[in-house]
Write a structure and sequence with these properties.
Layout lengths: L7 E6 L25 H12 L3 E6 L6 H10 L4 E4 L4 H16 L11
Parallel strand pairs: 1-2, 1-3
Length: 114
């Protein structure tokens, strides 16, 4: 278990706004949804872990819930938070998550991501 001074990093992979893509061409799938963890987050987490940093990844695209962020922040009281944004489909979601986390007070109140 880490002490209060050990480094902690919480990495968040946001959900996408659009899960259906219509390319408008014959033979192209009407539904296109890739369920894979962001390889950039895995690389960052791997590097940090090897250097003694406690890292947790919350993958909202892969099925984890907003509540998982809230739960992680209860145990990661003094952490660095990284939120991925790899395309226009998750950019607004990333901003919303960042705003909600930033508005969170130290006592844990006013943390409600929609």
């Amino acid at each position: 278990m880490n002490t209060a001074n050990d480094p902690q990093v919480l990495l968040i992979n946001p959900p996408m706004l659009q899960k259906e893509v219509d390319y408008g061409t014959e033979g192209t799938p009407g539904k296109f949804h890739i369920k894979a963890i962001n390889p950039g987050l895995i690389s960052i987490a791997s590097y940090l872990s090897r250097h003694g940093v406690e890292v947790r990844i919350i993958d909202l695209l892969g099925g984890q819930k907003i509540e998982d962020i809230e739960q992680a922040l209860k145990s990661f009281t003094k952490c660095v938070i990284g939120i991925s944004s790899t395309s226009a489909y998750d950019y607004l979601e990333s901003l919303d998550i960042a705003k909600e986390i930033k508005s969170k007070r130290a006592d844990g109140t006013n943390f409600n991501i929609k």
